[in-house]
Amino acid sequence: MEEKRVRLYKTVILLSGLVCMIFFGLAALEENISREWRVLQKEFKEILHKNAKTQREKDLAASFPIEIRQVIIKDFNTVDRCVSCHSGIDNPNMKDQSIPHATHSGDYLQNHPVEKYGCTICHGGQGRALTRKEAFARESGIHWEFPVLPLEHIQSSCSKCHLSVFEEGKAVAGTDQLQRGRQVFMDMGCLACHKVRSTGGTFSVDLSDQGNKTKNQYSFLYVKGEHSVPNWLKEHFDDPQKVAPGSQMMKFEMNEADMDALITFTMGLFSPKYPFKYYSAQTIWDLKSHRPGMEGKQAWDLFCAVCHGKNGEGKDYRIYEIGIPQLNNQEFLAVASPEMLEFTMRHGRSGRLMSPWAPRNSGLTDQEIDELVAYIRGWKKPGPSLAQVREAGGDVRLGRNLFRSRCGTCHGADGEGGLGLALNNQDLLSLADDDYLYRTLSTGRANTAMPSWSRLTAKETASIIAFLRSWQKKPSIQLQPLSFRVSGDIEAGKGLFNALCVGCHGKYGQGGVGPAILNPVFLTAASDSFIRESISRGRKDTAMIAWSMQREGMAGLTAKDIDDITAYIRSREKFKLEVVHTSTSMGVPGSGQVLYKQMCSGCHGVQGEGKHAPALNNQELLNAASNGFFEAVIALGRSGTAMRAWAGGAQGYADLSGQDIADIVSYIRTWQRSTVNIRGN
């Protein structure tokens, strides 16, 4: 029995050894004879023999070794064995052969020799692999982060060293697909939501390193077809909401060529990871966030047009699920101050699609933001010149009709005042010449309820002036020209202003009981002589006393005091506001709440959250807009939108009085929780 067991063990050991010998023999056979790279090198050697014409060529063919070849690039931390199969890649005699024996196409190797750059830096794939399947790494089961790139997207690799996103320099030869993708990216306004190399919007993901993302960082749950990065991008660009449910990215219509180019560009957005000696100078500057400055139109087209429209036409709240304000609307431009536009750009609108574009957020410079503000304000149609108004001549009857329909809600039907100044005041009319009235009508008063009326014709402007002038009974006072400047002590004037004037005109001269007299737009219309005489003479039947006169045992201001105050007021003409100061409201919030719910909540929401109109209960809007802005918008409405002129009594609605409007604005203002600096955090 024991003998049989020993014999069995010996037989098993013998058979096991035989199986192992067969296995090792087959492995040796496969490794030394049938390995893919060996077969290809033998084919290449035969081609060399076949094409050899000289003895030297025959000797070279005969001595061609069958061996693993590799290129080690320390700067890239890569080991590329692609040349083990692509033996003829740099052999000019192989240009007519088929792949993998053929010479590399084009002249790329002249500037990118294999021994210096390798292969995977451009083509992707697993450089250490020795089979096509493992090197290409496209099939399931091959776990490699960066498969070989499809030829239609191979130029995405060029961007690792040669892409300048913002510099319009000479493109590197052979990167036409990449450059086309860059142009599509720019034209479609992708920078409105995505930041690239420190510049762009913050609404969505930063794309600066998108090219380094592997397919494992994408979700293919809703993607049809191949699970690859190019296919994910194609499906995503074709239908963003399908591939990424909840995405607010718009669906863009584009042809196949533009789609392929955009995919190439997106895959080519890399952050730097190689020594800078490999990068072009333009790319280095780009990667370091140094780029050329942009003018207003260029910045608008790149960052704003995709939402607001090429010409600021916006998107109607009644049609689109998410409406976008119409910035080229003339009524809007008549009341929107530069400070309001700047604040909105810098801080955005929380809860809306409007990202903050302050330099710390977007990479834009202060100068570029100023350029954008100027570009938007450039849509405001210029009004008639003073010479044209003088030539047109005024018609008092036409002026009366225009005044009562456009101005009466704020200034009173007979100029007695209300939300606005009393324009029939004799002291005002005796000081305000026609030139002053023209400038006031033309430019309005930024951050107050007084809009610019530049959209009036020369005849209409002249007629309103003529109607105002028809109230004057007191002789006009001859003033110094607009260029005249008083000689006063600004610091002394500031002290007097803070002591005597802020109670009515506001701490920052933004207006209250009295008008906004530190308003830069007012100061471009009023001469120092006008200001000085207004202080000296006062305004009868108003809170503005004649400060040069003694009263109740108190001495009046001296001529020097008045000149000092005038000099201080003038010094504010070029002052840049830090905050959009709201004037003292004359409204009653409780009454305004009742009116708001009746008249406004249907579109703007019960709590101002915005339904079919802008959200009014928005902290950025409340900081950007003055009380005067809201008052003017309510009174005048917005043509081309659902916002009617509530002071106009149209569409079956009753007029709102000036007091009603002030009440509504005072209620809206109760939603504001804090005050934010225009250029601060």
Structure notes:
- The protein is built from 35 helices and 4 strands.
- It is elongated, with a radius of gyration of 38 Å.
- The longest helix is centred in the N-terminal third of the chain and has 33 residues, at 2-34.
- The protein is an all-alpha fold and 681 residues long.
- The model has no long low-confidence stretch (mean pLDDT 91).
- Strands 1-2 form a two-stranded antiparallel sheet. A two-stranded antiparallel sheet has the order 3-4.
- A hairpin with a 2-residue loop joins β3 and β4.
- It has 4 domains: 36-148, no CATH class; 153-281, Sandwich (Immunoglobulin-like), CATH 2.60.40.420; 386-571, Orthogonal Bundle (Cytochrome Bc1 Complex, Chain D, domain 2); 589-669, Orthogonal Bundle (Cytochrome Bc1 Complex, Chain D, domain 2).
Short structural description:
This protein has 681 residues and is mostly helical. It contains 35 helices and 4 strands.
